[in-house]
Write a structure and sequence with these properties.
It is a single chain. This protein is mostly helical and 393 residues long. The protein has 17 helices and three strands. A three-stranded antiparallel sheet has the order 1-2-3. The chain is globular, with a radius of gyration of 22 Å. The chain binds carboxymethyl coenzyme *A. It comes from Sedimenticola thiotaurini.
Length: 393
Amino acid sequence: TGLIAFDPGLGNTGSCESAITFIDGEKGILRYRGISLDALQNHPNFVEVALLLMFGKLPGKAQYQRFSTSLTNNANLDEDMKHHFAGFPRSAPPMAVLSAMISTLSCFHPEFLELEDATQVERAAARLISKVRTLAAYAYRRSLGLPYNYPDPTLPYVSNFLHMMFSEPYRQYSIDEDVVAALNMVLILHADHEQNCSTSTVRMVGSSGANLFASCAAGVSALWGPLHGGANMAVIEMLEAIHKGNMTAQEYVALAKDRDSPVRLMGFGHRVYRNFDPRATILREVSEKLLQRMGRKDPLLSIARKLEEIALQDSYFIDRKLYPNVDFYSGIILRAIGIPTNMFTVIFAIGRLPGWIAHWYEQKRQSDGKIWRPRQVYAGNRQSAYTARTERG
Ligand code: CMC
């Protein structure tokens, strides 16, 4: 093993060169293609950010228009694809449905399996980014036994998603621009985060030459885990448990610090940030502002603030440099919008999709693009004797 650098969890391995997202974890800085989150906050437009990440610069009018039209034209699902949904039980986890259905897109759109140039990538990206929200909305509606909502071609990206989620045959969902702006911001803040687990998975799968849909379906599976995208659901479950009086915020923090307990303070800590996750700071502001505009109070927001206050004064969290991450406040916003907890990680996936596509495309264009094939440090027996089954106990 002499020549192999051992780096469990790959925390100290640069797996690729990338020009998409810059993070300074010590200072708590995150920029997309060099543009700060603060600048994006003033104009929350997820589609624009998706194009920025995927193609390297903010889109001009023509590209923006072309891409938006393509999103509108591709929003519906092939009627045959809808039959697949009938095969899932109502209780199916929406992330399982999403991963399966993104894989299924490879079967329905074989024309996108070989992408030769930027024009083809743009078309495939529009199809995927558009359809993922229809798939997500239908997965939600199927879980409740509700009918499919056809996309409305007059609505922009985020509003159309809300319509597909919440309109009923007898009542059109009423679009609230504050909600639309908040959801745009949630999606933007999830859009890319360099070599996180799901993005590395997309690059890993893509490195073998696998197609865009297959690579992104793998990304959804990686995102599902509670230490990654699944944490946003776990945060709300934690806050609800405290709210129901099962334990106090102080007791929960004590449990999260106990090294004999598997409990962690969900939505806290990050492999890269050793300072405030700038996304958490923005999402806290967005959640407070949205609730205020809606004239609502959410007791879970007060509990989250309390937990943050306790943790940030506690030497356990201070010494380990554990701060709130992107998942700590996002659920408060999604709850206010009416999105159920089991859909939170799906929303993360919709947001992260442009980042996955950007990385898949960047890797495809890299001339030294090699198949990813990490090494290991073998820790088993070098040689063992074979015993015939009849002679084994
Ligand atoms: N609560 C309590 N202790 C923690 C926490 C936490 N949330 N996070 C880390 N620690 C402790 C951990 O026990 C370890 O302590 P010790 O050094 O005494 O063994 C130390 O801090 C370092 O933790 P680690 O697990 O080695 O750090 P990591 O970089 O491997 O893990 C993490 C990063 C995000 C998985 C972890 O902080 C965690 O599990 N957080 C809670 C889950 C969460 O919020 N995940 C979302 C991450 S951000 C968005 C995303 O990626 O989807």
